[in-house]
Amino acid sequence: MKKQQIFLAAGGLCLLVILFIFGKTVAKKEPVAGMPANLGVPKFAVADLIKSAKQKLPLYQVDYLDKIENGVSRGDVKELQIKNLDALAGFWEDSVHDHDLHLFYTSESAKLVNSEKNLTFAAQLMLASLRNEQDIAKRGWKAEQAIELFDKAIVLNPNNDNLKVGKGSCYVFGKGMAGEAQETMKGIQELLQVVKRDSTNMEAQLVLGIGGVISTQYDKAINRLNIVVNNQPDNAEAISWLADAYAGKGDKQNALKWYQISKRIVNNPHYSKEVDERIKQLK
Question: I want to staple 254 with a disulfide (CB 3.0 to 4.6 A). Which of 198, 220, 224, 246 is the partner?
Answer without folding.
Answer: 246
